[in-house]
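REQUEST FORM: STRUCTURE PREDICTION
Request ID: SP-0412
Submitted by: Lab K.M.
Chain count: 1
Length (residues): 317
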Amino acid sequence: MNDMTQPVARLSMTEIEALFALPFADLMFQAQKAHRDRFDPNKIQLSTLLSIKTGGCSENCGYCPQSAHHDAGVDKQPMMQLDDVRAAASAAKAAGASRFCMGAAWRGPKPRDLESVAEMVREVKSLGLETCATLGMLKEGQAEQLKAAGLDYYNHNLDTAPDFYGDVITTRDYQDRLDTLARVREAGLSVCCGGIVGMGESRTQRAGLIAQLAALDPQPESVPINLLVRVEGTPLADAEALEPLEFVRTIAVARIALPKSLVRLSAGRQQMSDVMQALCFLAGANSIFYGDKLLTTGNPEWERDQRLFETLGLTPL
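STATUS: Completed
RESULT:
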């Protein structure tokens, strides 16, 4: 493996589109080389995601069952108690997770909410886990408050390319997301930022998402690539399913364009076969969300993951 301090050659939109157009074997070869240059190809980082406040979000994201604009059968639930969060984090650590992510369905946290989350961060950190939070948009000073509590990562996804964004979300714009990411960076937090594919976007728009992620300076330390989970009651419930090998291509292109990032298989793993996941790991994915639930949708069981890791010879980072 090469030194992770080596500079990254930033790819243009044209170069990223050209990667998508490569023959599959050539693309996988390039992705494997990029992966092996900086990572152990047989190691995988395990994260667990807990919804600490569910439902009732004022945003209208077309993919999200937690939006108050959609009737997806998700009951609004208040903030979890600190002891329950600690118990969930302890169970995640015992199951092999190294990072614990806490998600709340807000447009952005209020001051009293943020103090409660800061307490959770301190508790989880005390267990020896890396901490991550996804709480929506942050105002001035909020990222610094989370950093002071011991937060390691803040997740805020770009979701898709700028020219497709308005087809999915209208209650906030692209610049709002970039502004939050800038605040996270200024506070000295690591950035977790990715997107969702399979929402009806074109391949060019998938390339546009990766180009936006690759243009962030520095590039995100963690890049979750979500495959749309089509939930009844959301506007995207009837979106056409993305062809599995196109998803694998997306992972491979992300690995090449974001060579230092942990590329994470996130939402949608439950609908992926073991063979599809194996191809994603071969394409350079080296992080997963691990556990029985991902916010409000299902996730492969720990036992299934363990069997797959054993078959592929993967071990936790």
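NOTES: The longest helix spans residues 111-126.
Reviewed by: T.R.
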